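Open question from group meeting: does this chain pack into something compact, or does most of it stay loose? Before anyone orders reagents, we agreed to write out a predicted structure and look at it together. Recording both the input and the output here so the notebook holds the full record.
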Amino acid sequence: MSRSVNNVASRRRRKKILKLTKGYFGARKNVWTVAKNTWEKGQTYAYRDRRTKKRNFRKLWILRINAATRTYGMSYSKFMGELNKNEIQINRKVLADLAMNHPEAFKAIVDKVNK
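Structure tokens returned:
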């Protein structure tokens, strides 16, 4: 009896990965084993870096808020402590945006906290 091979499915599976690796350099785009390994590694990096991105943005927001509060003679930790004490519920993303793009609004928040 002849050997049964599901050539259609395996071809489709390989073509799918090769299509995803289109634009990669050298053998990474057209050699099946290299392309598959590269694509899988890329997926691992993507998963990891979705979490890293959140950390990096939080760091950036804290830096921006700290720089803005220091111009008004206050540290970041004191500012955040006073915000919580006064029950002002504004997240770091919004505070950083106000500090960068709307300094007068940020100054109003700092003045409210200082009172």
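Observations to bring back to the group:
Helices lie at 7-20, 32-70, 76-85, 92-101, 103-114.
The radius of gyration is 26 Å.
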